[in-house]
Design brief:
Layout: H1 2-9, H2 16-36, H3 39-45, E1 53-56, E2 59-62, H4 64-78, E3 79-94, E4 97-110, E5 113-128, E6 131-140
Parallel strand pairs: 1-6
Antiparallel strand pairs: 1-2, 3-4, 4-5, 5-6
Helix pairs in contact: 2-3
C-alpha cells in the first residue's frame, strides 16, 4: 500500500472538471476569434484536416479548407461589429474526445443592415497533444414564422 501510494503521489492526473473547463475555454476562444475576424487563432482552435464537418442551418462543409475558405472567410469579410457569445455550455469529456452543447447569440452589421440571431449548437472536440481542437460544429436557429403568419392566401 505504501509503495503504491508513494509512486502515485508523483503522477499528474487531469481531473475531468479541468478538462471540461479547457473545452469551454476552447469554445469561448473560438467565439472571440470569430468576433475579431482572427483567422490565425481559428486555425489553431480547429483540427486542420478533412475530418472537420460543419453543419449550419441546413448547409454542410466537409473538411477544414472547405469550411475556412467557403464559409468562415467570406462570412467574416461581410460582417462588421460582430458580437458572438456562447452560453449554457454543457461539456462532456471521455478520454481524448469531448462534446458540448450550448446556446449562442450573434449580432453584426452586414452592409447597411444590423442583424441579430441566436440558436443552439453542439461541438465535438479532439485532444491533440495538450490542446482541445474543434472537429465538428453544428448550429441551428429557430424557424422563422412564414411571412403570411402561416395563413394560406385565398384566390
Amino acid at each position: 500500500f505504501c509503495l503504491g501510494s508513494a509512486s502515485q503521489a508523483h503522477e499528474t492526473k487531469v481531473e475531468p472538471a479541468s478538462a471540461e473547463n479547457r473545452v469551454i475555454e476552447t469554445l469561448n476562444s473560438n467565439a472571440t476569434a470569430f468576433e475579431r475576424g482572427d483567422l490565425d487563432a481559428l486555425n489553431r482552435l480547429w483540427v486542420n484536416d478533412e475530418t472537420v464537418v460543419v453543419f449550419e442551418n441546413g448547409h454542410a462543409n466537409h473538411g477544414w479548407v472547405d469550411y475556412r475558405d467557403h464559409h468562415l472567410v467570406p462570412e467574416m469579410a461581410e460582417m462588421k461589429n460582430v458580437r458572438y457569445k456562447l452560453a449554457d455550455l454543457h461539456p462532456h469529456v471521455e478520454g481524448e474526445m469531448a462534446w458540448a452543447t450550448f446556446t449562442y447569440t450573434i449580432s453584426a452589421d452586414v452592409g447597411e443592415r444590423h442583424v441579430e440571431g441566436g440558436g443552439v449548437g453542439t461541438a465535438v472536440l479532439e485532444k491533440i497533444g495538450t490542446e482541445w481542437r474543434i472537429v465538428h460544429w453544428h448550429t441551428s436557429s429557430p424557424r422563422r414564422p412564414p411571412a403570411n403568419g402561416g395563413a394560406e392566401k385565398k384566390p
